[in-house]
Amino acid sequence: MSSDNITFLNYPVPREGPKVPYKNETQTIPVFRGTPLAIGATLIHNLGFLQSHFWRNAGFDVIREIPHLHEYAGRSDPTVIPVEKVPSDAPTPAVQKRRGDNCYYTSADYHALYSSGEVTPLAVVEALLPLVRRDVTPAGKHSTAFLESQVDIIRAAAQASTDRYKNEQPLGPLDGVPVAVKDEVHVTGYKRTLGTKLDFKHGTDATSWCVQKWQDAGAIVIGKTTMHELGLDTNNNNPNYGTPRNPHNKNYYCGGSSGGSGYAVGAGLVPIALGADGGGSIRIPSSFCGIWGLKTTHGRVSGAPSMSLAPSVGVLGPMASSIDDLALAYRVMANPAPASQDAISAQFPKPLPLAAGRKRIKKIGIVRDWIDRAEAPVRAVFDAALEYYRQHGYDVIDITIPYLPEGQRAHVLTIMADIASCVDARQIRHLSAPNKVLVSMGMWQITAQDLLAAQRLRNLIMKHIAHLFKTHPGLMIFTPSTPIPGWHIDGGENELSRGLSDGKTSVRNMEYVWLANFMGCPSISCPAGYAKDSGVPIGVMAMSDWGTEEDLIDFARDGEGILDMHIPSGDDSVWEDVISKAKEAGVA
Questions:
Q1: What is the pLDDT of residues 86-102, one digit of tens each?
Q2: Which fold, 81-401+474-583?
Q3: pTM of the predicted protein model
Q4: What GO MF annotations does this protein's record show (predicted)?
């Protein structure tokens, strides 16, 4: 469906951007880990001239030198609100069950077993708790992915769900389904640390709207998942609470900053999890862990209190082991909040499936110079996916987007400024070594001129993107999820325990996903292949017009046949057959 059929608030005035050649090069940034990282971080935190040196070397000053910026006002909030949609009488599609023993369970498997009485939600919870709890000795096998599990709250929710099924009154397809929620999101009774050793609850014990909607539908939050500290990188390395390793290969990162949620789904612990993006990207762990991830324009659909540490770039969205569950989770969580809780959220329409018989425009746009930056294994998977879509009726066209490398720097600059504004200078010494550097530079090196220039560039690119969507209705801007086939843990245990500063890989990892985040556009990451040498999943990503999440879901469904997905396997497999364990537990 084209956005021509939707009325918007704050939609960018379409304007073709300047025609500038694409020019990018991989940055040369030294890697620090262990003792050198700790010493260097302390020096940079305390010495302004060192901060200035690293800031200039990172090339952030190029943003203010862009000659076209004087023609554009700044735009610090990319939120675009669809206030009117074509009514849909299409029924919400049912979630399909697991397709084979080598596949992930879906919410439909849980719902069917609960309805038959063969398994109860309480049995599932009792099977999961020993696996995810870190407050017991020994800690659970998968506890590194979980910051906290409030046992009394979880068991009470499971008992209530079990009683509803016993009385044949379940709330719906999510009732009793275990889900996980990123630490960044507010949940009553839980801490909110943002992956730090600090308290970021800000005196509130409310639950964010998106989580509340899942709970209202009967879903059981089995815990809050770990994240990269402050969301300020894309590997999920966290020396404070531990780093979950990739379920497909323990020598690789899950990706971040929502790596704990990505791990929880990828390891089979839950079919659905929530990610949020106040710095990294929820699409990177979905790519590395071989699951589906949706970033939604309903990024403000959180209700009180605030969802994100970094509101000008903060987004949220579900991760799932199937496209059906991704769609279900999105449609439940994206229901608008009451105006009394969130005036912005209240203006969004209720998400509705698109009519099955509608006329669809199938068009993919690629920026060839940009795509050519992907490493060979990723490019091979991407090309195969592109050909698959072409053979299934999609037209592929070449498009251009100005200032992509500079836009990525503007995105990072904005994140750093946002997060630094939310951290007290006295708290920096409590952060891990890499973030002492980043927050110090964000706090003391970013000038007003830098930040305003970044927001002018955001507006320039948003207007150009709007021009592309109006010129090519139904356009899907198609890229790999990340240009690298996984992020290897080069430094082993020392790297995991002491932290990692690898700016080069961080920048490369975000080379494609930053655009949807910074523009506020919806996007979806789909598993599309596996790296031959490591077995780590490789994903592809589509970004669409504001307010067209349902089109993305249909686009992903069109591509389901690209990959024969499978659960992590092999001698080191961490995948858990939760349902079999629940049957063995036999809790009534």
A1: 566 677 788 999 988 89
A2: Amidase signature (AS) enzymes (3.90.1300)
A3: 0.95
A4: catalytic activity
